[in-house]
Amino acid sequence: MRLDGRTHSPARPPARCAFPLRTTEDEDLVRQAVDDDSTEAFGELMRRNEPRIRALLLRLTRGDRVLTEDLTQEAFLRAYKGLPRFEGRARFSTWVHRIAYYAFLNHTNRVPRHSSLPEGFENTAEAALGEFSSTQSDLREDMDRALAKLPDRYREVLEMHFLRHVPYRDIADHFGLPLGTVKTQLHRAKLMMRTKMDGWAIETGREYAVVM
């Protein structure tokens, strides 16, 4: 099993599995990997989860296969080292998904949050050409303020979906939530932003309309 580019040699031979690995639940494999120091069990956990983790990282890195490979290896190396601290409160797949996502964030050093909001996230009212730049600047400023005031969970869901283009299913895996709950949180986050920004637009007299 390759975790860091080299063949891992366990301190003692892997314990014999009591049942076939391919039919074993993840939770049982985790227990074998920790209690029996079974690299074979962890290797099976990697085999099951690596395709999805690799696909997530490939999207996050915008198709950079070299970086994706490095981050995938880093994520599973972190998981391997941290396995004794895995408490089982979430599924193993959810836990390693979070490790992979935060490995990506650490690599990018958290790029400026709102510098690449996608087309279509907001629409602005028509403005004269001479006013366009100022209007857009005001809009970005208020969007930054509104996003910063969201509850942490709502803010992270919004950032993951709109800034990092993470699919709903992967966001659900990240938080260990049902898909419907993630969609509801995203909808509520957008409503909260719109309410705040509409209020600020009235207070300041700024001429933009936000549609989300």
Overview in brief:
With 212 residues, this protein is mainly alpha-helical.
Low-confidence stretches at least 5 residues in length (pLDDT < 50)?
A: 7-19, 110-120, 122-133
- Domain unit count: 2
- Helix and strand string, N-terminal first? HHHHHHHH
The CATH superfamily of the largest domain turns out to be RNA polymerase sigma factor, region 2, helix turn helix motif
Give the strand content: under 5%
| Rg, nearest Å | 22 Å
In which range does the helix fraction lie? 55-70%
Shape: elongated
CATH class of the largest domain: Mainly Alpha
CATH topology of the largest domain: Rna Polymerase Sigma Factor, Chain: A
Which keywords apply here?
single chain, 2 domains, elongated, 212 residues, mainly alpha
Structure write-up:
This protein is mainly alpha-helical. The protein folds into two domains: 21-108, Rna Polymerase Sigma Factor, Chain: A (Orthogonal Bundle), CATH 1.10.1740; 129-204, Arc Repressor Mutant, subunit A (Orthogonal Bundle). It is 63% helix and 0% strand. The chain contains eight helices and no strands. The chain has helices spanning 26-35, 39-60, 65-82, 92-108, 129-148, 152-163, 168-175, 179-204. The longest helix is centred in the C-terminal third of the chain and has 26 residues, at 179-204.
